[in-house]
Amino acid sequence: MTDRDQLVPAEPAPGLALETLDRDSPLVVGLQVKIGSPYGWKCVTRTDQQWAGWYAEHPDRLFRLLTVQGEPAGLVTYDLHPGDEVEIETFGLVPGFVGTGLGGYALTLALEQAWTLTPTVARVWLHTSSLDHPNALRNYHRRGLRTFKTEVGDRT
């Protein structure tokens, strides 16, 4: 997404909110493991040492907690890149909230936040995989994101 005006918001989901999450919160690791387990995300098997490396790799990484009525429902992680580019490094809902109709509005909130993270955001982007939820790519496209590049490979 190269312009904020490309965002096509989903209908609001009552009770869904996006809150700042401290990088030291145990929710960061716990939620990534919960969210990624059904899809084979590499983070599921990271050791404590690998998690420390992940944190150190991008000290400016920002974390946001998706909540429903105050209950943790998902996670958004942002990486700020040179040229005022914002990567949504992690986006997802915990299994108990998948399939409840929250994904579109959760992504809307994540994208709206992304466009505020630097004074002049030039591009917001993310990665997905055919191993992710079957509705993920459709949701990304519905919110205004466009496929930039497709790669074929395996997860090893």
Relevant terms:
26% helix; alpha+beta; 156 residues; 4 helices; globular; Aminopeptidase; 5-stranded mixed beta sheet; single chain
Distance between the termini: 29 Å
Q: Please tell me the total number of domains.
A: 1
Shape: globular
CATH architecture descriptor: 3-Layer(aba) Sandwich
Low-confidence stretches: none
Note the quaternary state here: single chain
CATH topology: Aminopeptidase
Tell me what the structure shows.
This is N-acetyltransferase. It comes from Actinoplanes lobatus. InterPro entries: Acyl_CoA_acyltransferase (IPR016181), GNAT_dom (IPR000182). Residues 16-156 form the N-acetyltransferase domain. The chain has four helices and five strands. It has a five-stranded mixed beta sheet, with helices on both faces. Strand 4 (85-93), helix 3 (103-114) and strand 5 (123-126) form a beta-alpha-beta unit. It has helices at residues 26-36, 48-57, 103-114, 136-142, and strands at residues 16-21, 62-68, 71-81, 85-93, 123-126. It starts with 15 loop residues before the first strand and ends in a 14-residue tail after the last helix.
